[in-house]
Amino acid sequence: MKIHLVDGTYELFRSHFGAPPKKAPDGREVGATLGLLRSLLLLLNDPEVTHVAVAFDHVIESFRNQLYPGYKTGAGVDPLLLAQFPLAEKAAEALGVAVWPMIKFEADDAIATATARFKKAKSVEQIVICSVDKDLTQMVDGDRVICWDRRREIFLNEQGVIEKFGVSPESIPDYLALVGDSADGYPGIQGWGAKSTATVLAKFKHIEAIPKDPKKIPLGLGRATTLVENLQNNYKDALLFRELSTLRTDVPLTEKLDDLKWRGAYPRLKKFCHELGDERIPERIPRWR
Fold it and tell me: What is the mean pLDDT of the chain?
């Protein structure tokens, strides 16, 4: 079997900016929620899709905000989108898929935890992480765990991660720590661009293994000297940024593998869609409980 783990936060953002706005009969903006439902329904109509879970950032902030004040928050996010997060979770639950609304942790942590747990099961042939988030590429493992950009139909296995970033999945947290991640709000280490970082980590894999002697760095001596100096002067920041980018695999998820099997939508989905002003979605549901 295959397990599909969906980044619900990304899907909701994608629907908000990609699908047309739509107001429910009571005046609420619900376009992103309906877009998410249609996206999940498209996924569930694939006969290969049998086991599904969707993770949401129930609140944008997480434990990482305590570690680093500059970490991403809900500031600047469209209030019309933020207001739909509880609605989106309710929609996914009514559709009958497992839903993980994260408060202390992030949606990525839930997906990472599920990946680490379920990839050990003999019955699991492959885990497909439905997200474009760079953080999640650290979970890729050969062809057994892959990332899928559903919008662009791009699959990333381990070789794909190496080709895209120049480093293996295990080095992704170190790579992001040095290069920085503007989406998550941390700047990286000055001077450490994507190419230089990939060249160094391709050889040394992790920050601790990077030599202090610039002559041992596989770059020009002047460039290597600058990078080593910047890293040593900001070493604690580099380790902190790596902690921010390292996904947690200890989220207390209660679901077992069988709980991820999609058994159909709940009857309450019809009422839910009616309240949102869309009568067509229930007509497309292939299976009901």
Answer: 97
